Amino acid sequence: MKKISQIIEYFQRSMPDAESELRYSNNFELLVAVMLSAQCTDKRVNMVTPQLFAHYPDAMSMAKASPEEILAHISSISYPNSKARHLAEMARMLTKEFGGEVPSNHDDLVRLPGVGRKTANVVMAVAFGSAAMPVDTHVFRVSHRIGLADDSCTTPLSVERRLTSLFPTHLLSRAHHWLILHGRYVCKARNPKCEECGISHLCKEYKEKGS
Questions:
Q1: pLDDT by residue (tens digit) across 56-90?
Q2: Cα–Cα distance between 57 and 33 in angstroms, integer?
Q3: Taken in order 97, 101, 106, 112, is the CA torsion positive or negative?
Q4: Number of folded domains in the chain?
Q5: Catalytic positions, please?
Q6: How far, rounded to the nearest angstrom, does the alpha carbon of residue 80 sit from its chain's CA centroid?
Q7: 141 lies in the same domain as 78
Q8: pTM (two decimals)
Q9: Are residues 119 and 165 both part of a single domain?
Q10: Tell me: the pLDDT tens digits for 85-128?
């Protein structure tokens, strides 16, 4: 498919070192940050996690905390009550069943409280370099706008499967960051910066607007 080759070539040139904007220093911190980032900006998460990690640097220390104690550190995050509960439960399960270590396979990750398919895919891609394509709102929107996903792709899972079939396996995790960052800074939900976009000539929606 010529289009996907051109898109890959553009992103390899414009974002050769694309990576997560969440700040973390180990796999446990990454997992916590990704859980907190659901329906919340990475910028806000990065403001909260330094204090949180100072109090709970690993699963064992967080496992000893109550949801109320965790809540005190994440109150400015979206859905803080449910996330505090999930973090406490996740840390206890991680300590009890996995020796405090973040598991490196998808099936074990989604067993953790508060960890869904997207969060597990992010951890697999970022922490373990696995061929995974997490689909968040940015990836979902950009994929449809530029025509990588069509009208039949109505769910995150269907978009994930479509993108997995298009991008070479070794580029999947990097492509996830390409699409997120492109959606975050260029192909925004409101007022997309089409004039600044290096792939507007390949974009399905841009062509339709111009017609």
A1: 999 999 999 999 999 999 999 999 999 999 999 99
A2: 12
A3: positive
A4: 2
A5: 118, 136
A6: 19
A7: no
A8: 0.90
A9: no
A10: 999 999 999 999 999 999 999 999 999 999 999 999 999 999 99
